[in-house]
Design brief:
Length: 143
Amino acid sequence: MASPPYIFFHNRNGGYWWHEKTDPILQNCRTINEEAAQSLLSSLTVNVSQPCSLLRWLNKNHPAYITDLVVFVDACCDSPPAMHWSQLFEKLGREATNLQHLTIYWDSENFVHRGLGKDLCFVRALTQLKVKKTITIEGFYAL
């Protein structure tokens, strides 16, 4: 039995990749909206640190399949700005109707780059997600 579908969005250039144990049929579909893919999608985990990459993918793939969302908020100086995260969270808040679990990891690099844990725009956008079961917040959000 194959692992549940798990997809990563950590490429600034808009790319993504499937977890190596994801069913090859699903990996070869052009979109998850295809009939062949739908039978393999009782759940879908998305792991994202590049919100624009996921937004581009969502232009062709319906967010309602996403059941688990793992967000890594990087704290380096060239990390995505809060506005990009806000756009993603607004879209997911409207269209990710089956979101069961949310995990957020806030990164921080000492006092130089504190990430977005204190960014009101980011935190407000995050509240738009409609999570049905669990929300887990980890990392250095309180620095």
